[in-house]
Design brief:
The complex is a heterodimer of chains A (407) and B (286).
Chain A: H1 6-28, E1 29-38, H2 45-64, E2 68-70, E3 73-83, H3 88-101, E4 106-109, H4 113-123, E5 129-132, H5 139-142, E6 148-150, H6 155-168, E7 173-178, H7 183-198, E8 202-208, H8 217-225, E9 230-234, H9 237-249, E10 256-259, H10 264-268, H11 273-276, E11 280-284, H12 289-292, H13 294-307, H14 316-332, H15 337-346, E12 375-381, E13 384-391, H16 395-404
Parallel strand pairs in A: 1-3, 1-4, 4-5, 5-6, 7-8, 7-9, 9-10, 10-11
Antiparallel strand pairs in A: 2-3, 11-12, 12-13
Helix pairs in contact in A: 2-14, 3-4, 6-7, 14-15
Chain B: H1 2-33, H2 40-56, H3 62-85, H4 93-115, E1 129-132, E2 135-138, H5 139-161, H6 163-173, H7 175-180, H8 185-210, H9 217-232, H10 237-257, H11 263-277
Antiparallel strand pairs in B: 1-2
Helix pairs in contact in B: 1-5, 1-8, 1-9, 1-10, 2-3, 2-4, 2-8, 2-9, 3-8, 5-6, 5-8, 6-8, 9-10, 9-11, 10-11
Classes of the chains: A alpha/beta (407), B mainly alpha (286).
């Protein structure tokens, strides 16, 4: 009879145990791809690049804390980001690559409405979850796409609050200059006009500029001749900054209101602080530390340390997207997009959220997949956007209106 | 109404003076050497970016920075002529055409690589605003128009009053005869490219201060420059001056009184209209 060596048995057992442990550890350590499609270059990059950075920052922080725990598994996250150049065709290609090649089931970013609408048109047929950031076109969430959620409120939710605010300040006549061929700016204006005229105000002119236009003096000269009491400027940061600057160069001294969501640094690349003095930005209460408090302060400090420049005001929409997703995955106990969507739909506001959200009932997102932040009036004072007041807004009423648009 | 029209004309003259600078640079290269130098706009933008770096990072004043960039631009023009265009001077014209397109891509790519995708605005201290009889004009716009006028005047004096300028005119009139008379045609070609690029750099710096420099701006400017070239008359310096101002003013009037969305279309319609009446351009030779 062969004698079994006790030490050999012990060694074999140890090796097998080690292998088993490795196998267990291997099974537990998984990777989850977070896809980002956003404008990383071109005119939309002022919104898209900070969004992409914000997602990367949130993911890095989560990975540093061990990842996302789902049952027995721990998921480490990997961001794959593509530049959609704020172009619908590029965005479609980016998202197809993310889904088909990179295997991403969670898509974040989406700063601009044109490309986001293009992706929204087919995303309902995909087994993925899409979280939209800064893109403000109403139709994106008016269609009731079950796997699409948006952290930023639609432009007209803010526009009506802005119209009431400007009328309340005693303005009777206003001239508009903006990217009015971009639908979310026209929706903002439509809602603005409804509230403004309801209170006795009148819009004297609606002048348009293109996304790449830089010389607005012809339109401003035309507007100046009409002698309005105020100017309303709607568009991306850079063209709007040119409007503010050139209005001063044309000696226009009336109050200037706008809807742009640009940071101080972004405006100061085009206009001087003196040229910007007194400008109002009527927008969702985005990243303004004085309006949002300490968590925003920490976000700004960390972002600035990581990327060398302060974040844009709208970048936390993407940061918050990630934490919505993280908590939903944890709550669902699964990475199955359908279960995660259910968890998002019933979930509250994540504790890490930077923006100030207005819940609809107990949930962060309404039945349209839309979240709402407070709206605020900000004024440029001595080189800074200063939070002046909230703009009264009713998310429940707007949510019903948004639902009523569904065919 | 009259004040508004005059204000629009004034607005148009500022941007028109930039078009003029670009077009004069193009017209001397085309008129004297017969080369459609498509890379001119991108070279102008390189100069604009350099001016930005010198003002923003090194703290130079706007005009000293532009002067340094102008010298660098002239040097770039010399390099382009020697390395890219001279080897194909006696080849079929299509070769120079292809090289011009290739150079545009190289310079645009180089600008993107060196200066990044963001637009930049060159800071200047000219922030005052003057009001005269209901017309308002910013100090910066006055500086732009004066600088453009001075640069074009200096170039015109150089071409008409100096020995080197005489050589340029001789080559422009009849290259072979000029060579037989002892004019160094190679030196003239180098000089023309240096002059053209220097003017382009001034245009790039002015557009960077007035509006902004960004990828694609140079290509847009060169398209406008060629439009002015045709409008004013191929190879005509006075034609380029008048054509640039006409294009700038037409754009401003079209944006102000019709629609900003169609300002480019309307400006080009004006160009087509002029060419229908005068196919040789406003000041071209019949």
């Amino acid at each position: 009879m062969t004698r079994i060596d006790g030490r050999l048995v012990a060694r074999c057992t140890a090796v097998l145990a080690g292998l088993a442990l490795c196998a267990t550890a291997h099974a537990a350590q998984k990777e989850l791809v977070i896809g980002v499609s956003d404008a990383l270059t071109g005119p939309g990059a002022v919104y898209g690049l900070p969004q992409s950075n914000a997602v990367q920052m949130a993911v890095d922080d989560t990975n540093a804390k061990g990842g996302i725990k789902v049952g027995q598994d721990v998921y480490k996250l990997r961001v794959v980001a593509y530049d959609d150049k704020a172009n619908p065709t590029e965005a479609t290609n980016s998202v197809r690559k993310l889904i088909d090649r990179d295997g991403a089931q969670y898509l974040l970013g989406f700063c601009c409405s044109g490309p986001t609408s293009a992706v929204a048109s087919f995303i309902g047929r995909e087994n993925v979850t899409m979280l939209v950031g800064n893109a403000a076109e109403r139709a994106i969430t008016a269609q009731g796409i079950p796997n699409l959620f948006r952290t930023r409120p639609p432009a007209d939710f803010t526009g009506s609050a802005a119209g009431a605010f400007v009328a309340k300040r005693g303005v009777k006549t206003i001239a508009v200059i903006g990217s009015l061929d971009v639908s979310f700016y026209s929706q903002y204006l439509e809602a603005f006009e409804r509230e403004f005229t309801k209170k006795g105000g009148k819009i004297l002119a609606k002048e348009t500029f293109g996304l790449k236009d830089r010389d607005m003096t012809p339109q401003l000269t035309k507007v100046r001749a009409l002698n309005p009491e105020a100017l309303l400027v709607l568009g991306y940061v850079e063209p709007c900054a040119f409007v503010y600057r050139q209005a001063v160069e044309l000696g226009m001294k009336m109050p200037r209101y706008g809807f742009t969501s640009g940071s101080e640094e972004q405006f100061l690349k085009v206009a001087t602080s003196e040229q910007m003095e007194g400008v109002w930005d009527l927008r969702p209460t985005e990243l303004t530390v004085s309006a949002l408090g300490e968590r925003a302060n920490a976000y700004v400090a960390e972002y600035t340390k990581r990327f060398g420049i302060p974040p844009s005001p709208s970048s936390p929409y993407a940061y918050d997207q990630f934490y919505v997703l993280k908590h939903a995955i944890e709550k669902a106990g699964s990475v199955d997009p359908k279960k995660v969507q259910d968890a998002i739909r019933s979930g509250g506001i994540p504790p890490e959220a930077i923006m100030r959200y207005l819940p609809v009932g107990s949930a962060m997102f309404d039945e349209n997949g839309q979240a709402y932040t407070t709206n605020g009036a900000f004024q440029w004072q001595k080189g800074k956007w200063v939070y002046v007041s909230d703009l009264p807004s009713d998310p429940v009423a707007y949510s019903k209106y948004l639902r009523s648009l569904r065919k | 109404m009259i004040t508004e029209v005059l204000q629009q004309v004034l607005n148009g003259l500022a941007i028109g003076s930039v078009y003029t600078l670009i077009a004069v640079g193009l017209t001397i290269v085309f008129g004297i050497l017969g080369i459609a130098h498509f890379a001119h706009g991108s070279a102008a933008m390189s100069g604009g970016y350099l001016t930005f770096i010198l003002t923003e990072r090194l703290g130079l004043g706007f005009f000293p920075a532009m002067a340094v960039a102008l010298i660098a631009g002239a040097a770039l023009g010399v390099v382009l002529e020697r390395l890219a265009y001279r080897p194909v001077r006696d080849a079929p014209q299509i070769n120079a055409f292809i090289i011009a397109l290739g150079l545009t891509m190289i310079l645009e790519g180089g600008n993107l690589l060196l200066f990044g995708p963001d637009q930049v605005v060159i800071p200047t201290p000219y922030q005052r605003v003057y009001t005269v009889g209901g017309l308002v004009v910013a100090e910066l716009r006055i500086q732009v128009m004066l600088t453009a006028a001075l640069a074009v005047a200096a170039m015109a004096i150089f071409v008409s009053r100096t020995r080197a300028g005489r050589s340029i005119r001789a080559v422009a009139q009849n290259r072979q005869a000029a060579v037989l008379m002892g004019v160094n045609a190679d030196a003239v070609a180098t000089m023309v490219f240096a002059l053209s690029s220097a003017l382009g750099v001034i245009g790039g710096a002015l557009v960077g201060a007035l509006l902004a420099i960004a990828p694609g701006v140079g290509e847009g400017l060169v398209v406008k420059g060629f439009a002015v070239l045709i409008l004013g008359g191929l190879g005509s310096i006075p034609g380029a001056i008048v054509g640039g101002l006409v294009l700038g003013v037409s754009e401003a009037l079209a944006a102000g009184f019709i629609s900003s969305a169609y300002k480019d279309v309307i400006a080009f319609l004006v160009m087509i209209g002029v060419l229908l009446v005068r196919p040789e351009g406003l000041l071209g030779k019949r």
